Task: structure prediction
Amino acid sequence: MKSILKIAVLAVLFQSFLSCDKKATAIEAQEEQRTKVEMVTDAGTMTIELYNETPLHRDNFIKLANNAAYDSLLFHRVIKNFMIQGGDPDSKKATPSDTLGSGDVSYTVDAEINKNFFHKKGALGAARDDNPERASSGMQFYIVHGKVYNDSLLTVDEKRINTWLAEHYFKKDIANKALLDSLQNAIDDKDFERYSMYNDSITSMASSYVNFEKYTIPNAHRDVYKSVGGSAHLDQNYTVFGEVVKGLNVIDAIAQVQTDSLDRPKIDVRILKVNVIEKTKKPE
Result:
């Protein structure tokens, strides 16, 4: 009887081992299948992996890179301990006096916000304006520089995340449509005083809105923020669609440059070329 029980236990353990091994292999294969791009800049070269779980952003970025859309553009907005931003097509031939940040393509990309992806150092995110759908710019992106956190700072940023989420879901609530229509009418009429009044009302009312699932920063993400660093307050409000896997020192170098009052580097930092590296499979 004991021998039979022992064999049964060993069989269960063996099946468990096989299951874990298959899961590990699947994760490894998925990561191997990620498309990589090389971003060559004045400050060095970064290798970036694009996530398969954000296919709209991945494919759009690949298309733009293959069309040389990013070649010769500037990192037009740089904030140390936060992020470096590029992708404004107007920056290609910009003079030192030009104000940048408004250039884009004619379309946006639907949000692909995924709870597994967060704003650790090196994360590649899609810039966006304050549109209610949180749709991304078709071209502008940012790469996180960030800072190293402690638990207290993460608690502060967690509250900030949920403040933004409350406002987002408040605006999505059909019960508040009349107020939002009034805000849009003020924008259309270019009545900034009326816009300010409605916008302040929305912000105030949204602060007590609770009809959504509050976000808690996972412990695994907290550990990364407390070791590698990042910009946690952006989580769950912007689409993260890739990460720098080689060349984090390039982000550091760019983040150190002197900037003007609009966060534009005083000496241009240029993207020389973005090369798409074809996906590679394991040998059979």
